[in-house]
């Protein structure tokens, strides 16, 4: 499983080269998320994993749930990148949409 940190993710976002999937639950996502992240809760991953493609970046609050999601997706043949430290490590502005 590939892993990058929040600083590396920030550079990718600035260069518009990141599709980010936030696997936190809806209420957590609404309380602030990395700009441009799409919400797909871990609790729904089994039903909706087909929405994720190779090369997507997976984030949660601290990196644990996103790591589990990446492992699950890898077992399904989808290679994703985990964001270590998650939203807690993000030092940029958060979106609240």
From TrEMBL:
<feature type="domain" description="Rhodanese">
    <location>
        <begin position="14"/>
        <end position="96"/>
    </location>
</feature>
<dbReference type="GO" id="GO:0004792">
    <property type="term" value="F:thiosulfate-cyanide sulfurtransferase activity"/>
</dbReference>
<dbReference type="InterPro" id="IPR050229">
    <property type="entry name" value="GlpE_sulfurtransferase"/>
</dbReference>
<dbReference type="InterPro" id="IPR001307">
    <property type="entry name" value="Thiosulphate_STrfase_CS"/>
</dbReference>
<dbReference type="InterPro" id="IPR001763">
    <property type="entry name" value="Rhodanese-like_dom"/>
</dbReference>
<dbReference type="InterPro" id="IPR036873">
    <property type="entry name" value="Rhodanese-like_dom_sf"/>
</dbReference>
<keyword id="KW-0808">Transferase</keyword>
<protein>
    <submittedName>
        <fullName>Rhodanese-related sulfurtransferase</fullName>
    </submittedName>
</protein>
<dbReference type="Pfam" id="PF00581">
    <property type="entry name" value="Rhodanese"/>
</dbReference>
């Amino acid at each position: 499983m590939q892993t990058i940190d929040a600083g590396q993710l920030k550079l990718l976002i600035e260069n518009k080269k990141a599709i980010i999937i936030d696997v936190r639950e809806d209420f957590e996502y609404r309380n602030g998320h990395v700009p441009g992240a799409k919400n797909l809760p871990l609790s729904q991953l089994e039903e909706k994993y087909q929405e994720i493609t190779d090369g997507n970046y997976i984030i949660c609050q601290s990196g644990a749930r996103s790591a589990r999601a990446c492992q699950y997706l890898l077992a399904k043949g989808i290679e994703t990148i985990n964001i270590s430290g998650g939203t807690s490590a993000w030092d940029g502005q958060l979106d609240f949409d």
